[in-house]
Every structure is written in structure tokens, then in C-alpha cells.
Amino acid sequence: MFPILKEDSLKADVVIVGAGPAGCGAAYDLAATGIRVLLLDRTEFPRMKICAGGLAVKAARALRYPIVPVTQRTICDLSVSCRMRHRKRLKSIDPICHMVERSAFDFFCLKKTVTAGARFEVVNRIDKIVEADQTVSLVTDCGLIRSRFLIGADGVNSRVRQLTDRFPEFRVGFAVEGIVDRVPPKDLSMGFDFSRVNGGYGWVFPKGGHVNVGLYTLKPDVKITRQDLVDYATLRIGGPLPTRITGYHLGMGGWRYRPGIGRVLLAGDAAGLVDPLLGEGLYHAIISGQRAAAAISDALDTGSDAGKSYAKGVVPIQRSLLFSHITSTIFYRLPRIGHLLLTSPMARIPLMKGFARGMPLLDIFLHGYRFWLGFQLAVSSYISGVYQ
Ligand SMILES: Cc1cc2nc3c(=O)[nH]c(=O)nc-3n(C[C@H](O)[C@H](O)[C@H](O)COP(=O)(O)OP(=O)(O)OC[C@H]3O[C@@H](n4cnc5c(N)ncnc54)[C@H](O)[C@@H]3O)c2cc1C
Q: Looking at ligand 1, which residue's alpha carbon is closest to its atom 18?
């Protein structure tokens, strides 16, 4: 009935829509185990992607290959302020973040994924997705593509999510970024200015030959204008004025995502997996892609339900997101108290150590909580011993 894209594309076990970090994360693992993967994107690579390119150490570690060739700068220190005042520097001996340029980084990851055995094709439009007992079919402008499983890794405005009506509770955040075309001064660290925006922050990321500045809010109804960004950049780093100013949404609410039973899984921004506290999405994009791959691989081997396995696989991500959701609600309502806590030795030391070790925020919190609980127990048992 429909023209076919390419004869052997019908042979794909898994079709992945979107060749960003989530799509490549999934495709790499599937291809590496010999599963036939067709990776689709609506554009050729390298392509532009609006993103500040702060790749946390945990995200770099999650990748199956080193990212040295596309790392512009490695960051150890952070500076944080509240409403542009009370600036404090949080130091770490070991790196906490790598600065990358998204177009180069994504192209690099795609090349690694293709080398691992995945096929990449450009598809301009997806009109329909049909799920059957054993297969899932995509009706595209290039023809009909059929596979056994489908991963929607096509970002915040996911067509797969829309067509399959998979996640009605999906919500968005918003960020605007620009480029300040000057070599970052040596003492300029990665900076966050909390509450510069309602429900968010301003950032300054020193890159190879320029500075990336931006404003982020987790609240979809808060407006951020170009002028807001120009004012922030001028106040924060002086001239020249930022150029290439663009805004984009971020996929959120993923702690409510339920993959359900079936052959279609969502990963990354498509599944709302951006951390609401920091607007950080790369780590969850990569690991959700990998967990979707593991669930499908298992389903192909054992006949288990991929949706059910994936639901289990994303539980740690969802716990982490829920924790960030609660923390961000309190933090952005009482930013000065949050900032005081954040910069106190009790929080900043475990936080920086945890970031450098590649730990997610929730794990750092639980680790710190257990440490303090143990410490208090030790002190109280010592005191009770003394007074016995
Ligand atoms: C301004 C801004 C700054 C950010 N800064 C950071 C940061 O510093 N650190 C961090 O960790 N996160 C950051 N994020 C979040 C991060 O960019 C995303 O979370 C991350 O890119 C999600 O990866 P993904 O693979 O899910 O989606 P994407 O990276 O969006 O990839 C989706 C892919 O799908 C393709 N696609 C879309 N629609 C279709 C379709 N219909 N058919 C075929 N292909 C399609 C796209 O072309 C794209 O290649 C930022 C976001 C914004 C907006």
C-alpha cells in the first residue's frame, strides 16, 4: 500500500526516532549486541541543537566511549549566587563537568553509533504509527517502515509521543541562550545565578573560544525575553553583547511517565526526563536510551514485555526526578535560604565530591543523610556511654 523506504530497512528489529543523546544511547547498545537498528532523524548531521553543552561527569561516564576529542574545556569549580548577590565559589579538585558544543558532540556520538553497527537514515515526516501484536509500523513521507520495537527519542516536541498518545502528563520548561563572542577570562568559572528568573536561574558557561550565557525556568508560564538575556549577560560578563540568541523548551514531568505494555518506548526529553532543578537533560537522555535498549534486548531474547522491563529500568531516574521536583519547589520559593544551605560546608563539600564522582543528586543527598545519621548515632551512643 505504501512505498518502502529501502528494502532492507524492513529488516530492522528496532527503529529509533531521533539521533540525539537518547537515540544514540539506545542505538549504540542495541547495535553493539548485534541487534538490527535503524536510527532515523529529520535532519542530516552535523545539525544545530540549542543547548549550553554542560555535560556532567556522570553523563560522560555513562557513555560507552571517551569524549576527549569533543571536549572544549573541563570544569572543576562552580560559582553560585542568589539574585546576583552573595556570590560564592564552590571548589573541587576533580572535574565535575565537561564543556561540549552540541553539534560536534552529537555528530561524534552518531559516528560512534554507526560504527557500532546502527543504520542512520533521514526521514522528514512521520504521519502515523500503527502498533500490532508482533510489529510496529511507521508511515513516513519516505514510505512504510516496520520493526518489532520503536523508541521515541525525538526530543521535547516528540512526534512519537504525540502520535501514540503515550504521556498526557508531559510538561515543559523553557530556556534562552546566547553566545558572547570572547575568549573566557581565566578566572571565569561555570556560574549559576539563582532566581535571576522566576523559578530558575541564569548561567554562564566558559567554552573554548566563547562564553555561553542563558536563562532557564521550570515554569512554562514565565516569559523570558531576548532583552532579559542581554541585560543578564551585560551585568554578568560585560561586553560584547550576546549573539545567536535562541529559546527552546525542555521536556519535563517524567516522574509520571508510565511506559505501559507495548512496543513503543519513550526516552530522553520525549519522556520528560529533564531534571527540573537544574534543567539538565543529557544524563537522563543517555541512560534512559540505554535502559530502553536493555529492556528491548531482553524482550527479544526472552519474550518478556519491553514496556514492563523499561518501567523498572527508569524507576531510579524517576525517583531522582521526583526528588528534584520537590527540591526545586522549595529552593525556588525560598532561594536565599536555599543558597545559604547550598553554600554551607555541610552541603557544598558532599555536593562537589558527589558531582566529581559522577553521582546523581538524590544519591548525594542519601549518602550525606546516611553519613549524618551515622555521625549522630555515634555521638549519641558515645554520650550515653559517658553518662552511664
Ligand atoms: C537552552 C538549553 C540549554 C540546555 N543546556 C543543557 C546543559 O548544559 N546540560 C544538560 O545536561 N542539558 C541541557 N539542556 C537539555 C538538553 O539539551 C536535552 O535534555 C537533551 O538534548 C535531550 O536529548 P534527547 O536525545 O532526548 O533529545 P534531543 O537532543 O532534542 O534530540 C532529539 C533528536 O530528534 C530529532 N527529531 C525531532 N523530531 C523528529 C521527527 N519528527 N522525526 C525525526 N527526528 C526528529 C531531532 O532532530 C534531534 O536530533 C539544555 C536545553 C536547552 C533548551
A: 281
Q: Is residue 343 in a domain? A: no
Domain count within the chain: 1
Give pTM, 2 decimals. 0.94
Protein residue whose Cα sits closest to atom 30 of ligand 1? 155
pLDDT in tens, 28-83: 999 999 999 999 999 999 999 999 999 999 999 999 999 999 999 999 999 999 99
- DSSP E strand stretches across the chain: 14-17, 37-41, 54-56, 71-75, 78-82, 85-90, 97-100, 119-122, 126-131, 136-140, 143-147, 149-152, 171-180, 190-194, 200-206, 211-217, 243-252, 264-266
Domain that holds residue 89: 7-320
Pocket test for ligand 1, best of 154, 170, 190, 280 (most atoms within 8 A of CB): 154
* 135-167 pLDDT, tens digit each: 999 999 988 999 999 999 999 999 999 999 989
Residues with CB under 6 A from ligand 1: 17-23, 40-43, 49-54, 123, 126, 153-155, 159, 175, 177, 214, 248, 250, 268-270, 274, 279-282, 285
* H/E segment holding residue 339: helix 335-343
Do the domain assignments include residue 361? no
What CATH number is given to the structural domain containing 312? 3.50.50.60
In a domain, 165, yes or no: yes
